[in-house]
Amino acid sequence: MAHDPGSIPGSATASSVTAARRGRPRDTSLRTAVLRATLELLRERASLSIEAISSRSGVSRPTIYRWWPNKTAVALEAFMTEVNHRLVLAPGGGVDEELRAFMHGAFGFAQEQDSVILASVIASATEHPDVMESYRAEFLRPRQDRLAGLVARQTRAGELRQGIDPTLLWQLLWGPVYLRLASGDVPVPTEFLDQVVTLLLTGLLAPPRCAPAAPAGPAGPAAPPEPRAEREGS
Amino acid sequence: MAHDPGSIPGSATASSVTAARRGRPRDTSLRTAVLRATLELLRERASLSIEAISSRSGVSRPTIYRWWPNKTAVALEAFMTEVNHRLVLAPGGGVDEELRAFMHGAFGFAQEQDSVILASVIASATEHPDVMESYRAEFLRPRQDRLAGLVARQTRAGELRQGIDPTLLWQLLWGPVYLRLASGDVPVPTEFLDQVVTLLLTGLLAPPRCAPAAPAGPAGPAAPPEPRAEREGS
Amino acid sequence: MAHDPGSIPGSATASSVTAARRGRPRDTSLRTAVLRATLELLRERASLSIEAISSRSGVSRPTIYRWWPNKTAVALEAFMTEVNHRLVLAPGGGVDEELRAFMHGAFGFAQEQDSVILASVIASATEHPDVMESYRAEFLRPRQDRLAGLVARQTRAGELRQGIDPTLLWQLLWGPVYLRLASGDVPVPTEFLDQVVTLLLTGLLAPPRCAPAAPAGPAGPAAPPEPRAEREGS
Amino acid sequence: MAHDPGSIPGSATASSVTAARRGRPRDTSLRTAVLRATLELLRERASLSIEAISSRSGVSRPTIYRWWPNKTAVALEAFMTEVNHRLVLAPGGGVDEELRAFMHGAFGFAQEQDSVILASVIASATEHPDVMESYRAEFLRPRQDRLAGLVARQTRAGELRQGIDPTLLWQLLWGPVYLRLASGDVPVPTEFLDQVVTLLLTGLLAPPRCAPAAPAGPAGPAAPPEPRAEREGS
DNA sequence: GAATAAACGAGACGGTACGTCTCGTCTTATG
DNA sequence: CATAAGACGAGACGTACCGTCTCGTTTATTC
Fold it and tell me: What residues pair up with B135 in beta bridges, in sequence order?
């Protein structure tokens, strides 16, 4: 992610075995310090500047520039270290159940204040193609892949309608959550994730007259959603 | 919209009849020039600065600051003048039809390149409560109100299920579109708006065994949507 | 002084008799208001701006520009109205006496805090030839003329050495006072004026051996000047 | 002079020996460039602005602000570098001779057009106590000290009258010169300096009847000074 | 009494400089 | 060779005055 030839993350790479490279070795604690400082600043809703990251982390500005191309990249990396380790999906169960589990795993981080970060990162990533690419690779791809798998599986199982476009579904799931992040409408409670799933499963249409006595089905979920009006929407 | 006490826009207010105000009258061509320059810059994806707006529009910097508190406010106003005059909804027809009409009226602007603007505006509005308020008042409110009306009407008409939360629905409609704007995934074609509506109306579930002939309804919707995979999603 | 075609000050000019000019007559209270406000600001050591004069005096900016070419001109005029009415010289008496009287009359204003004003005015007048000319006409000329008269008279009377250049003398009298004004070393006490005169009259040289017993003469003045060291000089 | 904690000018301080300070060293050519540009602008009688200094010298504005608190400080430093290296006094000789030498050394710079600079610097220093302090320390103090020494020496030698206040004398010597600078009455020719000394030594009074042959002394002084009237005085 | 004309206030505007901030680069000394 | 310290140019920020201009209003003279 950092534009670093030598890779760092886990990085028990070959190189580290063969040759302790010449010169002073990179101080890995710097990466941690920078990312931590960045998260703190983002949480404080302070406007992020390399300047600030530098002075808070104690890492000099030129050093930061050596390892990251711009502040957006730093922010994204900082966010990812926080978020991705939660993405653990336990497949199994009905569509309903499994979709909920997916939402919780994929967007559960939105329960926390930090999550606003992502919206600002994405927004500024528009100007930095490389950062955008990181975002796709590390955030989008894994989630979209899992969703695609889920859709395929449940379609085969006959639980989902035929012909559902996983990409479209992805946008209908992630879109509302992202909207709240972008609008500062955080934290996003778990119930919201569930409501989205519920509405999507059932659809908006009134049950056809075919089975007037059968609002049953998976209808339960549609239990009168308290008309939340606390906030204005987004 | 501009932080202007004395009204400018349409403003055939009483005051304008009774008293042509004292002092040199405001040169209204400036407002236009500023907004036009702003749109141009935003379209060019150039990073927006008051400096740039000033030199491009030929309006001096102090004058811009006289009428707008910050660049985000300028950008929002510029966007609104472009967008809001399209919001004409002709109610009538079935849910399906009416929801589509709503989408086209409310988000049709997303067909154009300009639309990315909005995402950047919203993103930076997070730091400017007053601009955020303008955004709510001029973009969100009218659209949400119309949607709420639509929902109420169609619920009474028995076309929509009982208990649908208009706010949640709003987020499911606007969320996906906004997501594409924010990701630079523009223009958003009209078909996308329709697909969202279709999916939401019908829901994801496979038709219950109760009535094999049932899913007719507005029929078309379930038509195998070609699994668009051109783009990666957002 | 003001760049006013029609003159105002005393101005019982022919024109004022023959024709009260057409149109609304100038409101003379404005001049007073402007000058008073200017003096106040100068006394407060605030940095003088037309803006400030305008808002303090309640006279609009364009009106001030109608009557004065720049702020330096306003300041000079304000100062002169304060200062010149003191210049009343009563000739007569010995050189010593008369020179002292001259100093008191010409530079007595330096006893007051306001006097610093003059230094700043002169300094900025360097860039405004017209203001400099006013300064010469209204401040310098009358004082220099009187001094020249004094020198001529006392030279004829045999009290002053032959061949004293009045211009040089003027600079030796006004220079030290001006220096204190310019350095903010105000107020300039009357004793200072006297000391200057004394030193100049007697000169620095020790009395020639010709009359070892006669430090008398006009020596009295040289009475042990208490070695003031309170301030640093200028 | 610059508000620089770390010493630059001569400063062969201990620190400079032991430790060449960390970080990129200050580019001393910038200081020179700034001061040179400043002198040029002052000579051209252009109104001095940091903006102008910056663009003329090629040094960026922030850098200038890093090293000087305001433009007055820059101007003073620029002037001092030009002026102070001339202050070399060779004591010895009679009062007359020595006083003249003092004048030439201390105020000789006034022969050049540049000298007007000083007046404008002092004028604006009134608003900047720190600059005023620099002025005292670097211009006033050394000159006043030498004058005080001169007075003491010559008083002991019996050439000067007892009880002459060096501060008062300072004002009588520097005042007339400063007056000419402030009035734009430059260059100040060497003869002017001499005339001031002459007048001060001898005094104004006609020689007492005691010793008709007396006023010999340094004789010259009383030589009929051509009544210069070319300029108006100041 | 109506027309005329100047004086004036209110306010908009382009312009210039201010002093500050952050960016990203570069240069040196140190580890 | 990695790093810290720090100097630097570039450029935008938001503000303060400048001096000018355009109006509408007021107050006097003149026809």
Answer: none
Q: What is the pLDDT of residue A136?
A: 92
Mean per-residue pLDDT, B13-34: 73
Long-range contacts of A144-151, Cβ-Cβ distance < 8 Å, separation of 24 or more: A144/A170, A144/B232, A144/B233, A146/A89, A146/A102, A146/A106, A147/A102, A147/A106, A147/A173, A149/A91, A150/A91, A150/A98, A150/A99, A150/A102
Q: Is D205 helix (H, G, I), strand (E, B) or coil?
A: strand
pTM: 0.79
Strand partners, D205: C160
| Pair (A129, A187) in one structural domain | yes
pLDDT at B154: 93
Encoding tokens for residue B5? Answer: 């006490």
Q: Which residues contact C212 (CB under 8 A, 6 or more apart)?
A: none
**Alpha helix segments (H runs only) across chain B:** 14-18, 28-43, 50-57, 61-67, 71-83, 95-107, 116-125, 129-135, 141-156, 166-182, 190-202
How many CA atoms lie less than 13 Å away from C173 in the CB half-sphere?
30
- Domain residue limits at A100: 81-203
Give the CATH number, domain containing residue D54: 1.10.10
Is residue A118 one of the residues assigned to a domain? yes
Say yes or no: B184 contacts chain A, CB-CB below 8 A.
Answer: yes
Same domain? B33 vs B145:
no
The C-alpha atoms of residue C105 and residue C174 are separated, in whole angstroms, by: 12
Q: Which of A118, A128, A146, A179 to mutate to test the interface with B (most CBs of B within 10 A)?
A: A179
For residues D104 and D131, give the distance between their C-alpha atoms in angstroms, rounded to a whole number: 25
Q: Is D160 left (phi over 0), alpha (psi -120 to 50) or beta?
A: beta
Same structural domain for residues B101 and B160?
yes
Q: What pLDDT is recorded for position C210?
A: 54
* Residue B121 domain-assigned (yes or no): yes
pLDDT for C120-146, tens place per residue? 888 888 888 889 999 999 999 999 999
| B140 and B192 part of one domain | yes
The rounded distance, in Å, linking the Cα atoms of C69 and D148 is 46
Average pLDDT over residues C25-52: 89
Residue C56 and residue C90 share a domain: no
- D164's tokens: 């002459």
Measured in residues, chain A has a length of 234
- For residue B106, is it within any domain? yes
C212 located within any domain:
no
Residues 6 or more apart from A154 whose CB is under 8 A from it?
Answer: A95, A98, A160
Q: Is D42 exposed, middle or buried (0-12, 13-18, 19+ CB in 10 A)?
A: buried
Check residues 40 to 59 of chain C and report those whose beta carbon is under 7 Å from nucleic acid strand E. Answer: 58-59
Rounded to an integer, what distance in angstroms lies between the CA atom of residue C57 and that of residue C67?
14
What's the confidence (pLDDT) of residue C163?
93
Taking only the tens place, the pLDDT of each residue in A139-198 is: 999 999 999 999 999 999 999 999 999 999 999 999 999 999 988 888 999 999 999 999
Of the candidates A171, A222, A97, A217, which has an alpha carbon nearest to the alpha carbon of residue B160? Answer: A222
Tell me: do A63 and A85 sit in the same domain: no
How far does B89 lie from chain A, in Å, by closest CA? 21
> Which span out of A126-130, A211-215, B45-49 was modeled with the highest average pLDDT?
B45-49
- The encoded tokens of residue D208 equal 């007492």
- Which nucleotides in chain F lie closer than 7 A to a protein CB? 1-30
Confidence of residue D209 (pLDDT cuts 50, 70, 90): low
Number of structural domains (chain D) is 2
Chains D, B in contact, 3 or more Cβ pairs below 8 Å: no
Q: Which amino acid belongs to residue A66?
A: R
**Cα angle: B46, vertex B52, B57; to 5 degrees:** 115
* Start-end of H helices in C114-221: 116-125, 129-135, 141-156, 166-182, 190-202
CB contact under 8 Å between D225 and C163, yes or no, is: yes
C217: its two tokens: 């003469």
